[in-house]
Amino acid sequence: MTVEITTLDNGLRVITDAMGHLQSASVGLWVDAGARHESEEMHGIAHLLEHMAFKGTKRRGAKAIAEEIEAVGGHLNAYTGREHTAYYARLLKEDVPLAVDILADILQHSVFDPKELERERQVVIQEIGQAFDTPDDIVFDHLQETAFPGQAVGRPILGTTAGIQAMPRENLSRFMASNYHGPRMVLVAAGGVRHDEIVALAETHLSGLQRGGNPAMSPARFAGGEYREDRELEQVHFTMALPGLTYEDEDFYAYQVAATVLGGGMSSRLFQEVREERGLCYSVFAFASSFVDDGLFGVYAGTGPEEVSELVPVLCTEIARLGHDAEEREVARARAQLKAGILMSLESSGARAEQLARQMLIHGRPLPVEELVAKVEAVDVEAVRRVARRLAGGTPAIAALGPIDGLASYDEIRASLAA
């Protein structure tokens, strides 16, 4: 990797990863602001702003933004997370100046036209409705709300229909002015790029960003509990999480390996026991997500109403067992999976740009691939058992949708975890 970093006078960090053999490039602006930075009255504003950024600037209308990038065969997109928002493009290397120009334009000079806003409100409301109609997606929003009730980190990223309909236009400008500052943004380019050229583009198009402040983010406080919704579906969608680990926790890599051992592939404990041996479901997996100050370690399964009573105790048993009988051969297999994922991601300019941006926003520096691989390879069976025991004693958060009559009570599930 040939990673170079330059910080402009306004605090904007410019990062490049040259991949000389590529004729294309991925370039984007990542912002250290997401749904967690919203006040309650602004719930959904980060995501609505992400949509509205593409709806016209002082120089370009919404149609012109789409036409300019697609006229060169490029692709422009964005996403909103709980802690970050990203705006990025993939295109041929000779067209990178156009991408930086457009990205800089939409994040500094958007006009938030009232007519466009009214149309985009309806688009976001449709997106909310689509999520509601996708039970294996919306169940994770319910899990997040149950784990972190009454907190920004627990609220759905998309917002609510009522909130989006009532959101004042001026909130868009207020949120952007409060959060879109030089020190809280990174411009990343990977692929067929030259660092000095990207820095020059940043100085031309992004030097107007203000240094700004660093608005406080309310801390995450895991509470646990349950959410149940009896809905007419073919399957029960069940997910459960325990308090997880932060990015900076000393056991972070053991945490990732533990989740992979538990439910990270076809050879994992959950897949083999729940699907292959018992035939209780089609989809089952484990996850280990992190935030700057908390995390979630959990499982998901989709199963039939007749199978859920048998399935959930098995999930709990497998989580509880991991802290006592994890084996070296399965830990080695999980390490290999994670290592392969890290190294395979180096073949994609988009994955490299995404990885560098997240590392800069979370850790303040790029993490060399050699360092990442070494930390994964250092995880042994005792580390996996230790982290599994750390996690297993917590109060769970549970969310379930579908025909849930056969689902055990919360107290029964909690007791199964402790067994």
| Terminal-residue CA separation | 47 Å
Multimeric organization: single chain
Number of strands: 11
- Global morphology: globular
**Fraction in helix:** 40-55%
Low-confidence stretches at least 5 residues in length (pLDDT < 50)?
none
Q: Look at the structure and give the mean pLDDT.
A: 96
Q: How many DSSP H or I helices?
A: 16
What is the string of helix and strand elements?
Answer: EEEHHEEHHHHHEHEEHHEEHHHHHEH
User: For the CA atoms, what is the radius of gyration?
Assistant: 23 Å
Strand ordering within the main sheet = 1-2-6-3-5-4
Main beta-sheet annotation: 6 strands, mixed
What structural class do the secondary elements suggest?
Answer: alpha+beta
Structure explained in plain terms:
There is one protein chain. The chain is an alpha+beta fold. The protein is 46% helix and 19% strand. The chain has 16 helices and 11 strands. Strands 1-2-6-3-5-4 form a 6-stranded mixed sheet, with helices on both faces. Strands 7-11-8-10-9 form a 5-stranded mixed sheet, sandwiched between helices.
